[in-house]
Design goal:
Elements lengths: L2 H10 L4 H11 L1 H8 L1 H14 L44 H12 L5 H20 L4 H9 L15 H8 L1 H12 L10
Helix pairs in contact: 1-2, 2-3, 3-9, 5-6, 5-7, 6-9
Length: 191
């Protein structure tokens, strides 16, 4: 991570990682993507677990509990049955056509009702990000159908390497994170 990015993080002095990443994105997109990465989080949690001593009973002893995993993997096959009808012969020509499907797909991974509400509130933002990202029509049809996968990874079901590369790109991933981080409790009206 660059010195400029580290200075920004110290200056931000915030516990809200979404806010820090959003601001850092203006300083350095690469450093923001690194800060948002799962690998950094995993490495950081591993270091903390090794360094922080167990509670020795003294009032000043440090304690650390690693965060809960976002979602426990579910054994079984993903549900690839579309939740919404999609005409394969008609191109997806608007982000609005993706909103219900994406909310369905993301919600199938939710660990609780609160997370489902977050996905619903972020639906328009998610669909706009997906629509503008440059996915193939086949991938857009898959998203619009909203198959409630519930297990595995969405990228496994994308039709080609270009779509998979878009889905896994740091900038796109950050856009999705920003959508859910900045979601309001009331979904925005469709335009």
């Amino acid at each position: 991570m660059s010195e400029k990015a580290l200075a920004y993080i110290v200056k931000a002095d915030s516990d809200d990682i979404g806010t820090v990443i959003g601001g850092l994105n203006k300083v350095s997109e690469d450093d923001a993507a690194l800060l948002a990465s799962r690998s950094l989080r995993k490495d950081f949690d591993g270091c903390i677990s090794e360094v922080v001593p167990p509670d020795s009973g003294s009032p000043k002893a440090q304690s650390y509990a690693p965060p809960e995993a976002a979602a426990k993997p579910v054994a079984g096959k993903p549900n690839l049955e579309p939740a919404y009808p999609v005409r394969a012969d008609q191109p997806v020509s608007s982000s609005i056509e993706l909103t219900k499907g994406l909310v369905s797909m993301f919600s199938s991974y939710a660990r609780d009702e609160s997370q489902k509400k977050t996905y619903a509130a972020a639906g328009q933002c998610l669909s706009t990000s997906v629509y503008k990202a440059g996915f193939s029509q086949e991938a857009l049809h898959f998203f619009a159908g909203g198959a409630p996968l519930g297990t595995g990874s969405i990228v496994e079901h994308l039709p080609n390497d270009k779509d998979k590369a878009i889905w896994q790109s740091p900038m796109f991933t950050q856009e999705l994170v920003d959508c859910t981080t900045n979601a309001t409790s009331t979904p925005l009206p469709a335009s």
